[in-house]
Amino acid sequence: MRSEEQTAVMVGSEPPQAIQVDEQHHLQIGGCDTVELAEAYGTPLIVYDEQLIRSTIRAFHEVFLRERVPYQISYASKAFCTLAMCQLVHAEGCGIDVVSGGELFTALESGVPASAIHLHGNNKTPEELRFAVDAGVGAIIVDNFIELALLQDIAAESEREVDVLIRVAPGVEAHTHEFIATGGQDSKFGFDLASDQAHAALRQLADAENLRCIGLHSHIGSQIFDADGFVVAVERLAELYEYGLDRLNLPLSVLNVGGGFGIRYTSEDAPAVSETLSAIIAAAREAFTKRHMELPVLWIEPGRSIAGPAGTTLYRVGSQKRIPGIRNYLAVDGGMTDNPRLALYGAKYHALYANRADAEPEDTWSVAGKCCESGDMLIWDAALPNPKPGDILAVFATGAYNYSMASHYNRIPNPAVVFASNGKAQVVVARETWADLIRRDKPLATAQA
């Protein structure tokens, strides 16, 4: 599946990264011919460039090592959570952030030690908290007062001391879509800093017998391109940290600034990892130095920035429709069932035909899915060559929040997922079948009225 001759090209609107095209004009990912992948594994098919995942994680490590600061990188598994992905990121020195019992189960089943896992979530159930406590996860990020009391009871029943961080809503409005902004005061997540909730939570933890508060956490949003929000959040968290350390004598040692580092989908000017991280580190150094406190261990939680650019979805082109003077439509064999992000918050993507990847655009085409839903669109008004029967459409930067958000609307099975590296492809998620869709259905005892 690998060609010796490859060239980097960019056609149409700007793709998120350089595109590799072989001598047959086929798109290559991880040294694999994507047309051959589509034939071998069917479509829709999500293809991950394994080496791109690894190199992205290593770039995060390099910044911290260069800056000589204590740190921990935890992969936000909500972006894409499978056994193989958990194994891969952990092999590259990452912990795993989970937000549900299902994600926790997946991470544990993948072989990641519980001590490397952190549990998040704004409404953790008693069952999920017990699961996490019994498994011995490294930390639980407490989100609210109800959870704080519940976790204290569960820890006491289990006769365990549980390390926790409190999630703080620092009142920082990140420049992002309103549905994925999480750090402002009006948010379902975390203890509000402005109204003294966060201070009250620390006071409760100072008296808690089975909970050990080791740090503070905030997550100000997703798709963030400006480090200024992180800088403001760090300053506000440092002030709260000082309160917990000096006034309450809490054993604080961790400052977790979350994730949300933006990636390029079409034309966004995404900053380099080094720029954003260096700004965060500099802000932490300044904030803690002026308060005469030792720099805590800095935790970050990248998810989209690790998984997003590495994933590409392959679709087979089906029907087409031209509406003179209005719009051209081409339909593919997937849609909002494997990628709901346009429907949710207007996400934009770059696409090309994998079987003629260096062909020049000829017209504007809007890419529709196959669902019985007028909002089932993947891309509006993409510059593409005119479609031909059997074309394979490649949509880039679909590695985060695509498979994770996949649904079974219209009883459409979920796609297969492969990891590609050094010219070899490995199936890491098998394609669902129609039989899989009804596996948990139970028929009526009698079908007669």
Automatic annotation (TrEMBL):
The keyword Lyase applies. The modification N6-(pyridoxal phosphate)lysine is found at residue 78. GO terms for molecular function: diaminopimelate decarboxylase activity. Keywords: Amino-acid biosynthesis, Decarboxylase, Lyase, Lysine biosynthesis, Pyridoxal phosphate. CDD domains: PLPDE_III_DapDC (cd06828). Residues 54-307 form the Orn/DAP/Arg decarboxylase 2 N-terminal domain. Substrate binds at residues 304, 341, 345, 373, 401. Pathway: Amino-acid biosynthesis; L-lysine biosynthesis via DAP pathway; L-lysine from DL-2,6-diaminopimelate: step 1/1. Its cofactor is pyridoxal 5'-phosphate. It catalyses: meso-2,6-diaminopimelate + H(+) = L-lysine + CO2. Belongs to the Orn/Lys/Arg decarboxylase class-II family. LysA subfamily. Specifically catalyzes the decarboxylation of meso-diaminopimelate (meso-DAP) to L-lysine. Homodimer. This is Diaminopimelate decarboxylase. It comes from Alicyclobacillus fastidiosus.
